[in-house]
Design brief:
With about 350 residues, this protein is an alpha+beta fold. The protein is about 60% helix and about 15% strand.
Length: about 350
């Protein structure tokens, strides 16, 4: 009986005994059980630990191990089990190429995951800017295409395909395209400068040269600004990055300087009182910070006072509301005290002997 079993176990099929096939299957099943029981349990413990920490990096790594590490372990176990068999040369080459393709696939997946995680962390630091999020998604799509294209080229090169001439041709063609599209590329690089340097973003009120308006859209080639008149102004990105641009949305406080004039008939006591009146008016407004008020100069038809104060924030409408309220209160206080504002007048004095 044992002799009969030995004959069966030693029966050779496709260059391997039946006993070797059985051992290979047992090793494969045992390896799969080890991965499933031990490795999965380790990952579950790591998950619990990662949830207790404030960092998101450990959560990301554990998720990556679960989504990439486990499938790759199963594939490698299958490959090692098959490698224990005596296989024909062609089958061995196909198996080696297959495992190479699998490894390249998972390497690209890991790289894409790490780059995506880096973008996510950067986006959170920028307080989830919608424009930045949309731009990073576009950049991520380009990175994916580049990585997968590189992976395919690497795999084909290892298969024995002569792709060096193709790559050289693409390189020469790329240089030609770059020379022909210098302006487009300049705008593209300016777009990345805007994206990562944040000189402005959608919703900011900016002034560029003689133009002013609110940023409505930042594209790869152009940026659109809605002017105060309502029309759409379209600038190339390079024009904006090369210009001296004033961004009022980033203004923490606005310095306001204005002058007012009173008639020459105003008494000295009233003139001394005017700076105090203006100071009290401005300091009573919580959104304004008083700086100074002085009798500035003798004008052609008025005594001129110069007033300086600061408005907290850069909102233009808010500034105008505050300035309007200050003007109302100055008018009210001057009327109470009989102080007259000056307006352009001319007095002609004629000697009596001319009549």
């Amino acid at each position: 009986m044992y002799t009969h079993i030995d004959k069966i176990l030693n029966y050779i099929f496709l260059g391997n005994t039946l006993q070797r096939y059985i051992i290979t299957i047992c090793v494969f099943i045992l390896g799969m059980l080890i991965i499933k029981l031990i490795v999965k349990r380790v990952i579950s413990h790591l998950k619990v630990f990662a949830h207790k920490t404030e960092s998101t990096l450990d959560d990301f790594i554990v998720t990556l191990l679960e989504k990439v590490g486990l499938p790759l372990s199963y594939v490698l176990m299958f490959y090692l089990a098959l490698k224990s068999l005596v296989l024909p040369g062609a089958t061995t080459r196909v198996l080696n190429y297959a495992i190479l393709g699998v490894i390249v696939f998972f390497v690209v997946k890991v790289l894409v995951a790490f780059i995506g995680y880096g973008f996510m962390v950067y986006l959170r630091k920028q307080k989830d800017d919608p424009l930045l999020e949309k731009s990073l998604q576009s950049i991520m799509a380009v990175i994916r295409i580049a990585l997968w294209a590189g992976a395919v080229i690497f795999f084909l090169d290892n298969l024995g395909f002569k792709i060096s001439a193709v790559i050289a041709g693409l390189g020469i063609g790329g240089v030609a395209v770059a020379l022909a599209a210098q302006t487009i590329l300049k705008d593209l690089f300016s777009y990345f400068c805007i994206l990562f340097d944040h000189p402005f973003k959608v919703g900011d009120f900016v002034i560029v040269g003689d133009f002013m308006g609110t940023i409505e859209h930042v594209g790869i080639k152009t940026t659109r600004i809605r002017s105060l008149g309502g029309e759409m102004l379209v600038f190339s990105n390079s024009d904006l990055t090369d210009s001296r641009l004033r961004n009022y949305k980033l203004m923490e406080r606005r310095r306001v300087v204005f002058k007012l004039g009173v008639v020459y008939q105003t008494s000295l006591s009233q003139l001394r009182e005017i700076p105090k009146i203006i100071k009290n008016i401005i300091t009573s407004n919580k959104e304004a910070v008083f700086d100074r008020a002085h009798f500035f100069s003798y004008g052609d038809f008025s005594l001129i006072f110069e007033i300086v104060y600061f408005v907290i924030g850069g909102d233009y409408n808010k500034y105008m509301d505050i300035q309007q309220e200050i003007n109302f209160l100055i008018k009210e206080e001057f009327e109470k005290r009989g102080i007259e504002f000056a307006y352009p007048t001319q007095t002609i004095y004629l000697p009596k002997d001319t009549f």
